TrEMBL record:
InterPro entries on file: Endo/exonu/phosph_ase_sf, Endo/exonuclease/phosphatase
One Pfam family, short name: Exo_endo_phos_2
Superkingdom to which the source organism belongs: Eukaryota
Source organism (scientific name): Araneus ventricosus
Gene Ontology MF terms in the entry: catalytic activity
Annotated protein name in UniProt: Endonuclease/exonuclease/phosphatase domain-containing protein
The Endonuclease/exonuclease/phosphatase domain, residue ranges: 34-129
Signal peptide start and end residues: none
Length: 149
Protein backbone atom coordinates (compact mmCIF):
# COMPACT_ATOMS: atom_id res chain seq x y z
CA UNK A 1 0.00 0.00 0.00
CA UNK A 2 1.28 3.45 -0.88
CA UNK A 3 0.74 6.12 1.76
CA UNK A 4 1.62 9.68 2.70
CA UNK A 5 1.04 10.82 6.28
CA UNK A 6 0.41 14.31 7.64
CA UNK A 7 0.30 14.76 11.41
CA UNK A 8 -1.60 17.71 12.84
CA UNK A 9 -1.01 18.85 16.43
CA UNK A 10 -3.33 21.43 17.97
CA UNK A 11 -2.52 22.48 21.51
CA UNK A 12 -2.60 19.67 24.04
CA UNK A 13 -4.97 17.49 21.97
CA UNK A 14 -3.69 14.14 20.71
CA UNK A 15 -2.26 14.48 17.20
CA UNK A 16 -4.49 13.75 14.24
CA UNK A 17 -2.92 11.69 11.47
CA UNK A 18 -4.31 12.16 7.99
CA UNK A 19 -3.12 9.47 5.61
CA UNK A 20 -3.50 9.49 1.85
CA UNK A 21 -3.42 5.85 0.76
CA UNK A 22 -3.64 3.81 -2.41
CA UNK A 23 -4.14 0.04 -2.50
CA UNK A 24 -2.91 -1.22 -5.85
CA UNK A 25 -5.08 -3.91 -7.43
CA UNK A 26 -2.09 -6.10 -8.30
CA UNK A 27 -0.96 -6.76 -4.70
CA UNK A 28 0.13 -10.34 -4.05
CA UNK A 29 -2.27 -11.86 -1.53
CA UNK A 30 -5.02 -9.34 -2.22
CA UNK A 31 -5.90 -6.30 -0.14
CA UNK A 32 -2.93 -5.31 2.07
CA UNK A 33 -4.58 -5.71 5.49
CA UNK A 34 -1.22 -5.79 7.31
CA UNK A 35 -0.33 -2.37 5.87
CA UNK A 36 -3.78 -1.00 6.72
CA UNK A 37 -3.45 -2.26 10.29
CA UNK A 38 -0.08 -0.49 10.67
CA UNK A 39 -1.61 2.74 9.40
CA UNK A 40 -4.62 2.44 11.72
CA UNK A 41 -2.30 1.76 14.66
CA UNK A 42 -0.06 4.75 13.85
CA UNK A 43 -1.97 7.01 16.24
CA UNK A 44 -5.05 7.41 18.43
CA UNK A 45 -6.94 9.55 15.87
CA UNK A 46 -6.44 8.54 12.26
CA UNK A 47 -8.03 9.28 8.91
CA UNK A 48 -7.06 7.07 5.99
CA UNK A 49 -8.46 8.33 2.70
CA UNK A 50 -7.80 7.52 -0.91
CA UNK A 51 -8.14 5.01 -3.68
CA UNK A 52 -8.49 1.78 -1.73
CA UNK A 53 -9.86 -0.12 -4.76
CA UNK A 54 -12.41 -1.70 -2.43
CA UNK A 55 -15.91 -1.64 -3.88
CA UNK A 56 -18.73 -2.83 -1.60
CA UNK A 57 -22.49 -2.46 -1.69
CA UNK A 58 -22.35 -1.10 1.88
CA UNK A 59 -20.25 1.76 0.47
CA UNK A 60 -22.62 2.73 -2.36
CA UNK A 61 -21.13 0.58 -5.11
CA UNK A 62 -23.38 -1.51 -7.34
CA UNK A 63 -21.26 -4.60 -6.65
CA UNK A 64 -18.75 -5.96 -4.14
CA UNK A 65 -15.15 -6.66 -5.19
CA UNK A 66 -12.68 -9.08 -3.62
CA UNK A 67 -10.83 -6.16 -1.99
CA UNK A 68 -14.12 -4.68 -0.81
CA UNK A 69 -15.23 -7.91 0.84
CA UNK A 70 -11.87 -8.36 2.56
CA UNK A 71 -11.77 -4.76 3.83
CA UNK A 72 -15.42 -4.79 4.96
CA UNK A 73 -14.97 -8.02 6.94
CA UNK A 74 -11.79 -6.71 8.57
CA UNK A 75 -13.17 -3.30 9.58
CA UNK A 76 -16.48 -4.48 10.99
CA UNK A 77 -14.64 -6.13 13.89
CA UNK A 78 -12.88 -2.93 15.03
CA UNK A 79 -14.46 -0.49 17.52
CA UNK A 80 -14.22 3.23 16.83
CA UNK A 81 -14.03 2.83 13.03
CA UNK A 82 -16.28 4.63 10.58
CA UNK A 83 -16.14 4.30 6.80
CA UNK A 84 -17.23 7.26 4.71
CA UNK A 85 -18.18 6.65 1.11
CA UNK A 86 -19.63 9.19 -1.30
CA UNK A 87 -23.10 8.59 -2.67
CA UNK A 88 -21.92 8.91 -6.27
CA UNK A 89 -19.20 6.95 -8.10
CA UNK A 90 -15.57 7.97 -7.73
CA UNK A 91 -14.33 5.75 -10.56
CA UNK A 92 -15.85 6.00 -14.02
CA UNK A 93 -15.41 2.74 -15.93
CA UNK A 94 -16.37 3.14 -19.56
CA UNK A 95 -16.66 -0.64 -20.09
CA UNK A 96 -18.39 -1.73 -16.91
CA UNK A 97 -19.93 -0.45 -13.66
CA UNK A 98 -19.13 2.95 -12.22
CA UNK A 99 -18.02 2.33 -8.63
CA UNK A 100 -17.03 3.97 -5.37
CA UNK A 101 -13.36 3.05 -4.90
CA UNK A 102 -12.24 6.12 -2.95
CA UNK A 103 -13.11 5.83 0.73
CA UNK A 104 -12.25 7.45 4.03
CA UNK A 105 -11.67 5.30 7.11
CA UNK A 106 -11.96 7.29 10.33
CA UNK A 107 -10.59 5.98 13.62
CA UNK A 108 -11.82 7.79 16.74
CA UNK A 109 -12.61 11.03 14.93
CA UNK A 110 -15.12 12.87 17.14
CA UNK A 111 -16.31 15.31 14.49
CA UNK A 112 -19.25 15.15 12.11
CA UNK A 113 -17.84 14.33 8.70
CA UNK A 114 -19.01 14.05 5.13
CA UNK A 115 -17.54 13.62 1.68
CA UNK A 116 -18.56 14.53 -1.82
CA UNK A 117 -17.34 13.88 -5.33
CA UNK A 118 -16.29 16.65 -7.69
CA UNK A 119 -16.80 16.25 -11.42
CA UNK A 120 -13.99 18.65 -12.19
CA UNK A 121 -11.11 16.60 -13.63
CA UNK A 122 -10.72 14.87 -16.95
CA UNK A 123 -9.88 11.52 -15.36
CA UNK A 124 -11.52 8.16 -14.69
CA UNK A 125 -10.97 8.84 -10.94
CA UNK A 126 -12.92 11.79 -9.62
CA UNK A 127 -11.64 13.90 -6.71
CA UNK A 128 -13.34 13.49 -3.35
CA UNK A 129 -13.61 16.27 -0.75
CA UNK A 130 -13.65 15.16 2.90
CA UNK A 131 -15.08 17.73 5.31
CA UNK A 132 -14.69 17.56 9.09
CA UNK A 133 -16.94 19.91 11.02
CA UNK A 134 -14.76 20.67 14.03
CA UNK A 135 -16.52 23.80 15.18
CA UNK A 136 -14.43 26.91 15.39
CA UNK A 137 -11.42 27.79 17.42
CA UNK A 138 -9.87 31.24 17.46
CA UNK A 139 -6.55 32.02 15.86
CA UNK A 140 -5.14 34.71 18.10
CA UNK A 141 -1.97 35.74 16.35
CA UNK A 142 0.14 34.62 13.39
CA UNK A 143 3.16 34.71 15.70
CA UNK A 144 1.81 31.61 17.46
CA UNK A 145 2.41 29.48 14.39
CA UNK A 146 5.68 28.38 12.89
CA UNK A 147 6.91 26.16 10.09
CA UNK A 148 9.41 23.40 10.82
CA UNK A 149 10.59 21.89 7.55
Amino acid sequence: MDATIVEIKIGSHPPLKIISACARVDMIGGFPLADLQKLLNSGPNVIIAGDLNAAHTAWNSPRTSFYGRKLFNYLRGINGIKVLAPHSPTHINWNSWDTVLDLAILKRIPFHSQNRVLNSLNSDHLPVILTLETGSFPIYSPEQFSTNC
